[in-house]
Request: fold
Amino acid sequence: SGAGDVDVWGVEILYVEKMSHNVILHTLTDSLSMRKTITETEELLKGYGFVRTHIGYIVNLEYIKYISSKDVILTNLKTVPISRHNIKLIKDAFLKWSVKTNEWSFWFNI
Reply:
């Protein structure tokens, strides 16, 4: 990495939030700002267990505790919004990830 760059291990990222012209990577221990668009960040994280929940949020499937019709609750109890038209995509991605990783400690609000 170049001067001023910070290396972040993907598994440590809980979620990504769009903030003006930056994205904020919320990790297990810190929040880091990066000058990228949410779409660029989504492309970087594609295939690594992340899903776009809303126009301004990407969530790591590893840290989803609960999915409701309006929000995703993460294991740290942070609430991240879900776009109505993304709900099926999010649930499908989470179920596929759960089967792949044998992770079944979650709740759905049906």
